[in-house]
Amino acid sequence: xxxxxxxxxxxxxMGTVEVVLIIVVLIALxxxxxxxxxxxxxxxxxxxxxxxxxx
Length: 55
Hints:
Layout: H1 2-9, H2 16-32, H3 34-54
């Protein structure tokens, strides 16, 4: 039982709040740069498709 109490008191590793904040920041960045990301992904997929046809 003592080990379980020590486990609950440990503050090592990332907590739920930190993970949620990181996710929120990533979502905000994706929302801000949606057009740029979409254009980049489209360009990359076109290059991959054209190179695949050459092989």
